[in-house]
């Protein structure tokens, strides 16, 4: 299952959430991803990993539930469960809840040199088309924050998303086969998600 943490180096409440995500980084069955947003960059420190695209993704999640506001830290589990990013007990409950859901979509990845081969099937077939997203991330990075609310603090981030692109749509009726060129050595994650953005139906990682 996928856990997305929306975080910021300029947010004093985010380091505990970053630490919580770090404990998930290598947990079997979980793909934990850290998306740095730029909403606090005006507070004296511009997040070195922030991307406006990640802020837009968080806002899209908010709109999907009828809200106009976003906050950090926020975790979204499976595309549907929204919790405060440092709330460990809430996270454990949501992980247990998602782990009990039967998998409807099967997804397999094979990395072969500079190519990623993607195969997916749905049983039963899906009623609506879904998005196929490619995510790349840096496994970890440590840096000193010299401004803003976390000034003087050394922070370590894990699974820092560097790219999140939609690479295809899929009708979920016939088997999917995609072949995508990969640049660089970063791990790659493929996510199959309902529109909205909504529930994540499948995700897999190629290191």
TrEMBL record:
Pfam families: DUF1223. It comes from the Bacteria. InterPro entries: DUF1223 (IPR010634), Thioredoxin-like_sf (IPR036249). PANTHER family: LIPOPROTEIN LIPID ATTACHMENT SITE-LIKE PROTEIN, PUTATIVE (DUF1223)-RELATED, PTHR36057. This is DUF1223 domain-containing protein. It comes from Rhodobaculum claviforme.
């Amino acid at each position: 299952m996928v856990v997305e943490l929306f975080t910021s180096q300029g947010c004093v409440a985010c380091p505990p959430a970053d630490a919580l995500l770090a404990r998930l980084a290598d947990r079997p069955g979980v793909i934990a991803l850290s998306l740095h947003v730029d909403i606090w960059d005006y507070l004296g420190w511009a997040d070195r990993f922030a991307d406006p695209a990640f802020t837009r993704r968080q806002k899209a999640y908010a709109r999907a539930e009828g809200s106009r506001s976003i906050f950090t830290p926020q975790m979204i589990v499976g595309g549907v469960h929204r919790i405060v990013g440092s709330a460990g007990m809430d996270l454990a409950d949501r992980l247990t809840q998602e782990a009990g859901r039967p998998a409807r979509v099967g997804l397999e990845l094979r990395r072969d040199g500079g190519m990623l081969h993607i195969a997916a099937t749905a049983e039963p077939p899906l009623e609506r088309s879904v998005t196929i997203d490619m995510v790349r991330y840096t496994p970890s990075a440590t840096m000193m924050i010299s401004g803003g609310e976390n000034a003087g603090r050394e922070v370590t981030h894990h699974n820092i998303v560097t790219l999140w692109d939609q690479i295809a749509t899929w009708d979920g009726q016939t088997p999917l086969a995609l072949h995508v060129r990969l640049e660089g050595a970063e791990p790659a994650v493929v996510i199959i998600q309902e529109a909205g953005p909504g529930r994540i139906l499948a995700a897999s990682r190629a290191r």
